[in-house]
Amino acid sequence: MSDGWRSAALHGAVLAILIAGFFVLPAYHEGALARSMVLAVFAMGFNLVFGYTGLLSLGHALFFAAGMYGLGLTMAHGGLAAAPALIVGVICGGAAAGLIGALALRTQGVAFMIVTLMFAQAGFLTALYFGEWTRGDEGFVIAQGAREIGGVALSDADARYLAALALFAVVFVGLAFIVRSGFGRALVAIRENEERATMLGYDVKRLKLQAMVLSGALSGLAGAAYALLFGYVGATFASVQYSILPLLWVLLGGAGTTIGPLIGTVLMFYLIDFTSGLTSAYLLFVGLALVLLTLFAPQGVAGLIRRRLAPWLP
Amino acid sequence: MDFGPHLVFALIEGSVAAAVLALTAVGLSLVFGVMRVVNVAHGEFFMVGAILAWWVATLVGGHPSLGFVAALLVAPVLAGAVAAAADWLVLKRVDYDPEATIVATIGMLYVIQQVALMTFGPDARPVEPPFNERIALPWFEFGENGLEFYYPWGFSTTSYKLFVIGAAAALLLALWALLARTKVGLVMRATQMDRDMALAFGVPVERVYMLVFGLGAGLAALAAVLITPIQQAHYLMGGDPLLLSFIVVIIGGLGSIGGTVVAALLIGLSDGVISIFFSPTLAKIIATVAVALVLVFRPQGLFGTRAA
Q1: Which of B108, B250, B282 is the closest to A287 by Cβ?
Q2: Residue B151, pLDDT score
């Protein structure tokens, strides 16, 4: 079997398992998996710049929040319908990433991390500053009646799972094609050796910016979808923690793999779910996971599988 | 209060903040300068210092100054030891790779913060200042009888706040003396200039790194001990000092100690003034965007000369 077919089979199998989950999972886990799939879209967006292009951004919460507020504010204050508001969210995420990327990509390494962190912090503070509209940390709720697309009420648990699955499937398969395309391979070339990529004639700056915008748009899509499906918009989603979490998910699942973000998101959700039953200090486990991953498994779960069992893993 | 006294009041409050910030930020700057790594857990060592100060002060009892002096001696040493252990256990093993270090110290941030939550609890707790006389400040006015002095209502500071400013200045001088005038300082500066050459000359670079990481954390803890009598100890208090230290270190030029002190004064004072006259949130938005732009367009910092 060629690598292309193996990859197609793998992606098909993952989606089949998720569809099967809809029929067999009890209500609580159905909700948990729906949430994880939306957050996995965020993680996949982050993975495009971190895992494939080799840019470590510490400011992706800003793009997630841009999508979330893009949808939330236009729906709550502008009276926009859900479908166009979702598009506004995606545009907000992509535009924010384009703007920040144009500035931050002038720097490299540690400076890039700090610049993205600072812009995201400024974005978070801005959300607090305009508390009159955003209601700050407290956040606001999107009216249940407005949360529907094409007559399907997305506040219903089953519809929510299927909507999350559809969204995840489109991004999952779409990215699988993108990372195998010339564009995706050029990004990997930049990650591996930026100077050589420049020498070979790739417009490295332009490619990096395109990766940032695509990644920001996906993060914005995830943020907007999260607000739409779960009905809540709050400044917590713009805080530093939500820039760290996608990094953790991707590191845990495996950076630079298509399947890693989903593995990381689901594993981390259940780890936190399990430990928060034991102690209120569940963030302790987030911290421990980060330290242990850096020390012992920088390639993550899918990275280990790729190295030990399946070198063809996309 | 009128504008004049109000401004002077803001400047005094800002000086206290600037003094504590300078100590904290110099710790971060030292670590970056010598080790070329960014310690994201720096604010948590500040928090550990504050919590240890509360713990020691409660344990010692008696007159507040006894507990305070004990805290001043014990807290930085313990916080430094924790940091040195973290350096040995984690950072050395990732070979001080800049990006891996940031991820690992983010992990440490959560671990330290959550351990503090589990042991110290979610409440904010005060430490009593060793002395705290209120000092009313005079203001002048040109009236019908020429120059007149009077004491505007609420225009005052405390002896402890003045002590904090003096103590921070003395500690910064001591640090300068350590770096510029002692053998240990010489070894640190040699490691900063050229790690490989220092190693070739028999400098135990790994031990220097451990010492510097511990010293940086100790400085943050020391700053926290000084501030706890004014601001209570709380397990989430590390966030602001971290953000402000980042801002200061970047504006001052990464790794330049002198630039860091100047930037701390600048940021502390302007933060004090902007926060009193405008919204504190707006002050922070301006500061964070300024930092990002400085890094993009002037990576050597406003006062630095070396490239980042």
Answers
A1: B108
A2: 76
